[in-house]
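Project standup — Tuesday

K.O.: blocked on the structure for the chain from last sprint. Re-posting the sequence here as requested.
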Amino acid sequence: MRCRGRFSQFDTLSFEASMAGQGIIKEFEETFAQWLGVKYAVSVPSGTFALYIALKAVGVSSGDEVIVPAYDWYAATAAVLHCNAVPIFSDIDERTYTLDPKSVEERISHNTKAIITTHLYGHPADMPELQKIAYDHNVFLIEDAAQALGAVCDGKKVGAWGDLACFSFGAGKILSCGEGGIIVTNNEELYERVTSLCHHPLRQRWEGMVVNPFALKASLNPLAAKFLMEKWQDLEKFLEERREAFQKLNEVLIETNGILLPVFIREGCLHGCYRFSPFVKRAKLRDRVIENLLKLGVPACHGFPEEPLPQTLRRALELGQLSWHPFPEKLLASTELCCPVSERVCRTTVMLDWTLGRTPKGLASFRDAVLLTSEQLRQKKDIGQGKRSPKFIRQER
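H.V.: unblocked you, prediction finished:
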């Protein structure tokens, strides 16, 4: 049986080859690994599943503790929970939305098996510090780089720092096939563990591994891999376009010095530019700022974690959604961990449409909307005269 159209070259043999990790699957994995600067890559059906398999590969099991950000999308915490492990919420750096190494040091214990750091919105986390903490405490470091394709930290691409890293090709990602993911590593033993956990025995045998016949057989669909390879040739162009748009939007915020603070970019880093996410100067004004911007034709909304994850976890426990988890008391204790920065950021983050920065017309409408919103709030004496914006670093391209 053959497919029609652009994928007509795909036949039964192509799909059988992909089960053994050959053909288009091998081509995509090798292309991705080479581009990122790592030795191994294993494609999987989704970014969340990638995190789950990564945790299993480093030996996370029932009752183990895994440090995760308190301000984050749900995926990392969900992966920990489905390993019957306990998420230990750590606070974030307010400027970058990513794990604060000092908070991680405070939360780490002899029960900690791994740290998951999420490069949220495309902000690179402080990988040198987190890597040092993981090494000093002999725990595994896993990067959730689902939103940070192309981000760079201290000269090294995000995803090349941890023991394992996970990327997503889900809807809305810079490189998307609708749904998909990939796990990368420089460690051969971890690569073999990942493969034996989720890829077909044919692939395991082909690569000379001791075959695990009970693998979940959850590889990326070869049609998805083909689609990703076709989009791959435009990846650098996509990244450059976003970086230029982000930079122009940030320059507007610096120029206007109004109610919105520009996106911070740490020196030596490149932002992944997944979401343009400035702060409002005062939390109580956030909803009014968003309302004003929408009225003026500028797409705006809250950051997608509208509450810290400890609160979300507590509600899930109260609703019985985690009744299957063997350690409800430990989960409840985790919800009581104090993460004041995460709580504050939930009230101050604004998410804006990055495509406004692509055209002079979009930039002009954005500038006018920010100026008008700031002026209206000043007239109501809700904000004072603008203060100097935090350090903004022009991204080197």
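K.O.: great, moving the ticket to review. The chain is about 40% helix and 15% strand. The domain at 5-232 is CATH 3.40.640.10 (Aspartate Aminotransferase; domain 2).
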